[in-house]
Amino acid sequence: MEFGRRVMLWRLLLSWAVLSIVQVSPACDFPAIYNFGDSNSDTGGISAVFLPVKLPYGETFFRKPSGRSCDGRLMIDFIAEQLELPYLRAYMDSVGSNYRHGANFATGGSTIRQQNETIFVAGISPFSLDFQVAQFTQFKARTTDLYNQEKNKPGSIELPKLPRPSDFSKALYTLDIGQNDLSVGFRTMSDAQLLAAIPDILDKFSTAVQQLYQQGAKTFWIHNTGPIGCLPSALFYLGTPKPGVLDEHGCLKSHNDMAVEYNNKLKERVIQLRRQLPHAALIYADIYAAKYELISNANKQGFVDPLKVCCGYHEGYDHVFCGMKGKVNGSEVYGASCENPLNYISWDGVHYSEAANQWLTNWILGGALSDPPIPITEACNEHTHV
């Protein structure tokens, strides 16, 4: 009993300490968000470049395809809502786009490091993180030039759809990428080879952050990678697993172990970057912990079995993916969505549903799973630099 009381007291004191930090820290007035990532945060990039995402994608919130690999909003959309900013338009989708409050350079299938051209892996985007940073650099240079040209004209008016040059250093820079580097590794490497590749992957990640810092970025919100072994798609062709292959929630242990190892190394890099970039605020958000918590307690949170997929036909070894048509036992089958996506964690076997994204964002943005443990609305403050 005495030990239990001590633990409760320690937790209470820790809560008071975190609360005291939050109370004395002014909220950040982020004028814009610049996002870099893969399909977990792509708001239309890959649809603009290749074939557009079709219904039933987008059906829950937008009521039409929105370029997102989801039935509705992504975590980056809920982040924008939290900061009272518009949803990010994709850099690739320039028609009618307003970039005053940021831009999204993420594309579905993106990796941190460029993939070997001799190895074709389906679903991987050519727009790796270094390309996304190069696009941002060009975006900043060209919009700044256009803004200044207009500003210097007699009787000019401010261009309402272009970012103000002074806003780049005040903006929030979000990074949600790395999952596909591991996914490619599972398909093309042994576990030992993939482990050996992680330092190089993180070298490329660190270089990207440093380049953004050189362009004036100061505040970074960095997501680690989620429990890949809990994606239903990881189990589609597994067959009957041997004892010990799956954990108590039905997730593929080897994939999750690799994700944990990657995340540990990523956190070490973030700490290293804090020392190298003294004027930057770098927040490490533990998305893995949030997603695994949701999967572990799906029923308590009002969701069905987390390994059940809302959109698509998945029975045994027969799979017709979301929004597509296929043959099953000689009959044509359409990969339709479920009756109520709000009850599902997995939208299409790879991506989370809007309901899950909202739950995860609510858990993450308050700072409970961040290092340092501060909310995203205060990520720019001085105490986040150490």
TrEMBL record:
InterPro entries: GDSL (IPR001087), SGNH_hydro_sf (IPR036514), SGNH_plant_lipase-like (IPR035669). Pfam families: Lipase_GDSL. Transmembrane segments: none annotated. One of its GO terms (molecular function) is hydrolase activity, acting on ester bonds. The keyword Transmembrane does not apply. It comes from the Eukaryota. Keywords: Glycoprotein, Hydrolase, Signal. Belongs to the 'GDSL' lipolytic enzyme family. This is Uncharacterized protein. It comes from Protea cynaroides. The lineage of its organism: Eukaryota, Viridiplantae, Streptophyta, Embryophyta, Tracheophyta.
